[in-house]
Amino acid sequence: MAEGWAKALKKDMIETWSAGIEKHGLNPLAVKVMAEAGVDISQQESNVIDELPIKEFDWVITLCGHADETCPFFPGKRIYKGFDDPPKLAADATSDEEKLVHYRRVRDEIREFIISLPDSLSVS
Question: What is the mean pLDDT of residues 92-116?
Fold first, then answer.
C-alpha cells in the first residue's frame, strides 16, 4: 500500500522502490481497499530486496517491526515508521467486510504518512 500511495501522491518527488524480506504475494484485500481510494496496485509485485534493480538508496523506510529488526544494512539514511499489519489485525474477523475495516484504517494511516514525505524524514 505504501508503494501505491507514494507513486500516486509523490511520483514527482520520490522515486519509490518497494521490497520486503520475504515474498508474500499481493494481498487481494489490500488491492481492494486501495482501489476504493482510487489507487490501482493490482500490477505491483511482492519483491524481496535482492530483486530490486538498484541497491543504493538515499532513504530506506521500514514500515513494520519485523522488517525493521531484520532489514539488511543499506548505506544512507534509514527510518522506521511502524504500522499495524492488516492481515494480523483481521485474523479473527469472520467476514471480508470485517477484515476490510482493518485494511482501510491502515491504508489511511499510510496515506497520511506518505503525504508528510519528504518533510517527515529526519536524520537519526
Answer: 96
Chain centre distance of CA 90: 17
Task: Assign 3-class secondary structure to the chain.
Answer: CHHHHHHHHCCCCCCCCCCECCCCCCCHHHHHHHHHCCCCCCCCCCCEHHHCCCCCCCEEEECCHHHHHHCCCCCCEEEECCCCCHHHHCCCCCCHHHHHHHHHHHHHHHHHHHHHCCCCCCCC
Homologous superfamily of the 2-116 domain (CATH): Response regulator (3.40.50.2300)
Contact 83, 106 (CB under 8 A): yes
pLDDT reported for residue 123: 46
Distance (Å, rounded) from C-alpha 80 to C-alpha 31? 24
Q: Of residues 2 and 51, which shows the higher confidence score?
A: 2
pLDDT in tens, 36-89: 999 999 999 888 888 888 777 888 887 876 655 666 666 667 788 889 989 999
